[in-house]
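Comment on the following before class.
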Amino acid sequence: MQTSKTEYNVAEMLSKGLQVKEIANKMFRSPYTVDTHIKNIKKKNGLKNIADIVREFILDLDNPKSFFKLSVVALFLTIQGFISIQIPEIDLKKPIVKRVTRIARRGFESLT
């Protein structure tokens, strides 16, 4: 795949599932600039959409399996970190069970 360094970084982030705004924030660029990079990648390589960019990026890697393993591990660690930071009172070892109490129809109708 023919890309510049910046376009390569954009393709990599797209293949990790990031949205254009997220990529722009990480690169300290405008979303319009990221869109321009995406358009340039499509034009240089004759691709039609972002799915084509992701496919070509992954096929160009030496070892695509390692890319996915790292992405999945990073995603898992991010979710786990978010849970532990945002919701510290939850004990992750115990399943969360909520009890639902139901009112019998007879009892409910007699109340109205």
